[in-house]
């Protein structure tokens, strides 16, 4: 069951990130996050009301609140990075999010084994190769690499927090609802501040009604992925769940190759692949 739900997480997150990256090419990233998460919050609110999820309220919801603060930072950074592209390089770098549990362990006094040390080295080399200067073709902007690493840190935090936010199915719905409300509030404040500085919240001042189905899909796929990951982490080894769920960027990269016909140079593909290998070593070492 753990493997099944974790792989479902990879599929859902990968498709949500691909859709979010595409939308960010024509809409501000903050707008994509706020609108998509508002749709998800509305749906979750109805589910919580129907299932009596409010009865599960307790101290664990603080984990959901914290995840709600980290989520918008990660999503906005990642969507901007995907919009800068190429997605086939940017998305695999996000697998470094699994390094967050390793960092927490170090702070608590744990020391990495040889496999984890090797994973760190391989991942760093992968980042350098994927984002370094190359000849010909579409280079990866340094900004895209920085944004992706910020997103990886944020996603890793969400991984850890959402797994602790509930112990029951109805409690999970409530935790995800609280997380989404926090996402919308945090993203809304950031969007308001951005508009006050002169940025546009909507293209040409009009709501993108034609993009509403895609925005809804991004929000609902993202929240479903959080749910399936929580179930995976609660019903089996967290390491296994994290490793399999962290493969979501591969889905994004494959979607970009299939839909956008992206072509990667050899060194970029090698770098992205090394980042993925390094992440798996980190999580399994």
Question: Any low-confidence stretches, pLDDT <50, length ≥5?
Answer: none
Number of strands: 0
* Percent of sequence in beta strands: under 5%
Instruction: Estimate nothing, just give the exact number of structural domains.
Output: 1
Distance between the termini: 22 Å
Category by helix and strand content: mainly alpha
- Mean pLDDT score, rounded? 80
Instruction: Sum up the overall morphology in one term.
Output: globular
State the helical fraction.
over 70%
Q: How large, in whole angstroms, is the Cα Rg? A: 18 Å
Transmembrane segments: 28-49, 61-82, 113-132, 144-163, 169-195, 207-232, 238-260, 267-284
Protein name: DMT family transporter
Family: Belongs to the EamA transporter family.
Domain EamA: 3-130, 144-283
């Amino acid at each position: 069951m753990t493997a099944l739900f974790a792989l479902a997480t990879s599929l859902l997150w990968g498709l949500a990130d691909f859709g979010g990256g595409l939308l960010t090419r024509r809409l501000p990233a903050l707008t994509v996050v706020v609108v998509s998460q508002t749709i998800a919050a509305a749906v979750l609110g109805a589910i919580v009301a129907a299932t009596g999820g409010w009865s599960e309220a307790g101290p664990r919801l603080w984990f959901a609140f914290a995840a709600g603060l980290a989520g918008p930072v990660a999503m906005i950074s990642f969507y901007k990075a995907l919009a800068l592209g190429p997605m086939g390089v940017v998305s695999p770098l996000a697998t470094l999010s699994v390094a967050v549990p390793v960092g927490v362990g170090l702070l608590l006094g744990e020391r990495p084994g040889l496999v984890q040390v090797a994973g760190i080295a391989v991942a760093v080399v992968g980042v350098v190769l994927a984002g370094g200067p190359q000849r010909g073709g579409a280079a990866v902007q340094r900004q895209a690499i920085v944004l992706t690493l910020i997103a990886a840190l944020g996603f890793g935090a969400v991984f850890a927090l959402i797994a602790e936010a509930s112990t029951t199915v109805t409690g999970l719905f409530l935790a995800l609802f609280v997380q989404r409300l926090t996402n919308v509030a945090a993203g809304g404040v950031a969007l308001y501040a951005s508009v006050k500085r002169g940025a546009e919240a909507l293209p040409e001042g009009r709501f993108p009604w034609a993009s509403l189905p895609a925005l809804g899909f991004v929000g609902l796929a993202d929240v479903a992925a959080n749910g399936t990951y929580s179930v995976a982490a609660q019903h089996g080894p967290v390491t296994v769940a994290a490793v399999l769920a962290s493969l979501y960027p591969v889905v994004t990269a494959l979607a970009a190759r299939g839909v956008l016909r992206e072509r990667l140079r050899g060194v970029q593909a090698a770098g992205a692949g090394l980042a993925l290998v390094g992440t798996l070593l980190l999580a399994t070492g």
